[in-house]
Amino acid sequence: MTLLASAANEPEPFHPPSLADFFPQVFLFAEPTIPWFEDDSPIFGINRIMLVRFIAAIALILIFVLGTRKMRLIPTRGQSLIEMGLGFVRDGIAYDLLGEKDGKRFLPLLTTIFFMVLAMNLTGVIPFLNIAGTSVIGVPLVLAIVSYLAFIYAGVKKHPGAFFRNSLAPAGVPWFLYIIVTPLEFISTFLLRPITLTLRLMMNLLVGHLMLVLFFAATHFFLFSLGGGFIALGAGTLVFGFAFTVFELLVCVLQAYVFAILTAVYIQLALAEEH
Amino acid sequence: MDNATTILAEINGNIGTVGYGLAAIGPAIGVGIVVGKTIEGVARQPELQGRLTVLMFIGIAFTEALAFIGIATFFFMV
Question: Is Ion transport among the key words of this record (chain B) (predicted)?
Answer without folding.
Answer: yes
